[in-house]
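Usage

Read records sequentially. Each one opens with the input sequence:
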Amino acid sequence: MEEFLQHFRSHSRAEQRWLSAVFEAVEQQLHPLIDASLGLSVARLSLAVLSKVQTAVGGDAADLPVSYRFVSVSELLRDQRTACCSSLRWSSAHYQEHARGAELKLPGYKALPRDNLLLIGCLCDGRAAGTSDGVWRVRDAGASVACAMLKSSCLWLGRLMLFPSWNYIPHDAPAAGYLELLDPPVCVTLEAMAFDPGGALSEVMSVTRAAELLTQRCEEQACVCVSGRVSVVCPPLVIRGKQFFCLVLSEAGSSVPVFISGMVTKILNAEAGLYEIDGQVGLCLAYQPAQKCCGGLRPGAEIQLHNVHFLYRASPFAPHVVLCACLRSSLQVTAFSRLSSKVEVSGSHGPLQCLLLEKNLGASQYLWLCYCQNAVAERLCPRWVRAERVCVVAERLLDFVCDAEQKTQKKRNIYREMIQEPHQCPVTTFCVWWPSAALWSVRQLSDWMRREVWASLSLPSLLPPSAAHMTALELNAALSWSVHEVPLTDVSPEPLLLVGVLELDSTRATLQLRDQTHALSCLCVSTHQSGARTAHINTAWQGCLVCVRRCTLVMERFMKTRFPSWKHLDQPTYITHKHCRVYLQLCVEDLTIISPSAAMSRREKPSDGPESAKRPRADEAPERPLTPAACVSVLLRLESKQGVTLQNGSADALGLQPGFVCRAACLGDVQCWSSDPRNSRTQERERHGDAQEIDLHFMGSCVRWFPVLHPGCVYRIIARNTEDVSVLKAKGVSARGGVTQLSSPALLLQPQWRIHTITEELPDAQSGVPALMSVSEVLHSSSAPEIVSFYGVITQRITLQEDNGTKPKIQSLTAAGDASVEQDLRLRLTVQDAECPGHVIDVYVDLSCGPYTLGLIAGATVSVHHVQRRVSRACNVYCRSLPISCVSVTDLTSVRSRSAVAPSPPPMMLLGEWASGRAQRCVLAQVRGHVVCVLSLRLQWTCSLCGSIFRQSSCGRTHPPCDSTSAVFQTEAKVVLEDGSADAHVWFSSDTVCDLLKLNAGQWEGLQRHVKVKGHVKVYTRGRNMTCDEDPDDAVVQYLSCLCSSTAVCRPIHLTCRLRAQRTGKSQLRKLHRGQTEFICKFTPALQLHCQRVHTH
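and closes with the structure output:
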C-alpha cells in the first residue's frame, strides 16, 4: 500500500483514506482474478483502476471521486435490498433531468434512486466453470451477479472491467438480483485475446452457394466461411442438456430488416411471459425459452422486436393487438428503464408455460389460461387453493371449457419452426374456436344483480290488468314484493362461468357459493335416482370447488310505497324504502366439480383405515398424513324435519338463537373408530342394535346443516377426538309425579360434530317416513289430520298487510348482520296440485320468526311440512304455518325454462258436476254456458285513499274530511249462468265487467265520465226488469238496464272461474213453467263462482 500511496502524498487526509479503501478492495476482490503470468502487483493494478475511474469521471485529473464508494459483488447482493442506479458520468443536475423525463413517460412509477458506487469485475459467461447458460455475469473474488447489456463484444470476456453506469435490480429471493449495464464497460487491463476457430477456413462463399452445397450429399465434413445478412436470430435452446441457437443468413440486400420498437409500460404476468407495450399492445413471450434473468424487461425499457406475429383480438381478456414471439423471433432491449419496479424472475419455465408445451396450446387458449390463473389466484388462494396448485385448477377449468380435439394440436417440430420456409408454428395455426368464457367473481355477480334488480324495475309491469281499479291500499300491497329472474347465460354476450366453493352458512341456514371476494346464497336441487327432482343435496358437496355454467339469478325486491293511485307510478318520491335479496337457483347436475371435497373424493371407499384419516384441500394437492384420531359415530335415518325458528339457547348464550328439530330413527348402536369413517360404506356392526326414535336438536351454528338434511335419507353423525360412546346417546327426561313423558329422547348437536350423507342403498331406508299428500288429498280427504304435509306448485304469492296489532315483534334472525330485514313478513301462497291444476289451496306463511326462505316464487315446486289444516266459515280449506312448519323448494323446472310450454289450462267443468262435488270440488276450472240474466251491476268512483264515494273532483267523506284528489273506477256485476246441467251465480270484478258488457274502449270511458257525476250507480233485477233505488229515470240507469237485458250480454260465454265461498242452507222449492205445465222443483243453493277471465276467442 505504501508503494501505491507514495504517488498521492500531496492529497488530503480524507483522500488518503479513500485511496486506502480502494487499494484494499483491489487487493481483496480484483487482484486474485488477474493471471499471475501478467506480473501485475496490487499497487500497479490499483493505479490502473484509479486511472480508469478518473477518466470515466472526467474533469481535472488531480481530483479524486471521493464521493464514490467501492462495492464488491457479494456486498451488492447481500446488502442492497432496493433497486438503485450509479453512474460516474452523471452530475446531480443530469440525474434529476433524466429522472423527471422517465417519470413523465410513466406517471405511475418513480425513478431509480442514485447511489455513488464503484463497481469493477471480470465479465464471464460461465464457460470457465463449465456452466455456460447464455447469461453474462460480473465476477470478483467473492461472488458473481448476472448482467444484461445493450451491446456486447466477445473481446470483453475474461477482462477486468470498470462499469461506469449501471442499474442494480434485486429479486424477491435473498442474495439475488442482476445488473443492467447502461454504458459499455471500460477495460482496466489490456491483455491480448486470440480467436481460434479450430480448423482451416476455405474461401468466403455466398449464401446461395452454401445452400447449394447443403442440398448435395457429402460424407466429408469441412469448415466453410459464409457471408450474408443476418435476417433471423433464434433464441438459445437447451435440448437434452446441450445449448444452441440458430440464425438465418440471407443474401445481402435481398431483404429489408423489419422490426417493431416500443416501450414496456406494464408487466401483465412475468411468470406467464405477458407484457404491455406503449400502453395498448400486448407482448407474449411464452413460446420462447424462459430467460435466466429478466433481461431488462421492466416498465420503461425500450425494446426492438424482430419476426414477431401480429394477432388481432386473440382473446377478449388480452389487448386487442398482441405481438407474439415464437422460436423464430428475437427481442432486443435498446434502452434500460430508469424507473424503479418490482421484478419477479423464474430461472426455468413456470407452470403456465409448462402447460403450454405439454398441451400444445394455441395463443388464444394460452391467453385464456393466463386469465384463468390470475382469477383463481385472486379469488381462491390461499384460503382454498395453495399457490403451487393454482395452475392445476386453471388447467382443469381449461379442460372444462375446451374439448380435447379443440385443445390439442399435432406434435411440434421445433427445428422446422425455426428454419423452415414458409414459416409455421403454433402461433400461426388458425383456430376457428377459442375460449371466450369470462370468470366472474362472486362479488362481481352480486354487484351486477344488485344493480340489475333496480335497473329492470318497471312499476306498471308489477301490477295486474286491474291496476286502474285498485285503491291505494291494494296498489301499494301489490308493489311491496316482486321478483326478477335472469338466466346466467343472459347476463353477458360472452359465456359466463362462476367458480367458487360450496359452503354451509351458519347464520342463514343456506348453502352458499363463496370465494375470497363475497358469498351468495344458493337454492340447489338434485335429481333422484328415479328421475324426480328433489332437494336432497348431499353433505359431500360441502367444500367442493365447483364451476357453474347454468343457473338462474333470482333478485327479490321489497318496497314500502305510498302511491295515491296508479297515475302516480312515474313519481319515485312515493317509494319510502326499498331493498333486495339476491341468490342463485341451480341444479346439482349443472355443477362441475373442479376439485372435490374430502368427503366427495372418499365416497364409497372402505373405512376404518389409515387412508381415511387424510383430508385433502379443495385443490386436491398431495396430502401429508395426519395422525389418526379416535372417534365415535351413529347411523340414523331422518324421518321428519321442522323449520328454523328463533329459540331460547343455552345459559351462556345471550338472547334468542336459531334452531330446529329433526325426528330420526337410530339404525344401530354407537360405534367407536380408530379413524374418521366420514361417508364411507357402512359396516354390518353399525346396523346392529335396538332401533330408537330420537329428537335431534340443532342450535346456533349447527343450523348450517339445515339445507343438507332431508327426510328419508341416512346420515352418519361423527364426534371426533373421543372414544366415549355416551356422547352420541340420546337422553330422555325422567317422569315425575306420575306424569307420563311423551317426548322422545333428545340429542343436542355440538358445533364440532360432523354429519355425512350415506348414499348406499340400505334395506328399509324409507320405512317410517310418511309420504307427502297431494293438494287434492288435503282439500278433500275426510280423514286428513290437523297437521298435514303435502307438495304442489306455487302459482301465486301475495304479501299480506303488516300486523299492527298487539302481537309482540321479534327481530329477524338477520337483523344484526343484514340491513335488509323483513319484519312482520307474512305471505299467502297459492299452491296448486301438481297433477290436477284445478285444485289449489292457500297457505298462509309467517316468515318473521326465522331465516328468510329462498325460492318461494311462482313456478317453484315445494314441499310443505307440518302446517295446520283449517276450514273457514265458508267451508273453504286453507293451511296456516306453525313455528315448526317448513317449506322447501324441490324443483326449479318451470322457473329455469322461461321459454318452456305454457302451464296447462284449468280443466273444463260442467256446473252440475262442479256443484255436486263429484269432481272433488275443483277450485279453478273453465265453464261454458249462457248468461241468463244480470242480477246486479254496481259502478262506483272510489277515493283511492279512504275508499269513500268520489263525486266530481272531491272525496265525499266529511267526518273526518278527506282532501284526496285521486279516485279509481270500480265495478262489480253478478249474473246467473247455466249450462244445461245446473246454474251458478258468477261474480265479475272491475277488469272483467267491460268484457261482460262487450263495450269498446271509447264506450267504457264515456260510461265512466257519466258515472263520475253522481259518484256511483247500482242497478239490480226486480221481476223481469232492472231498476235503481235512487233515480230509476236517470239516463245512465236506463242505458244500463237496456244493456244488461240485451242479447249482447245475455249470450253464450266461455269463462275461467274460481270457486267462491258457498252459501249454506236447505234446498229451496221453485215453480218452473214448461209450456202450459207448471213444475215445483227442489233447488240446492246456486254455485258461487268468481270470474277470472272472459275468453273472447
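Summary fields computed downstream for this record:
- The radius of gyration is 43 Å.
- The first strand starts at residue 69 and ends at 70.
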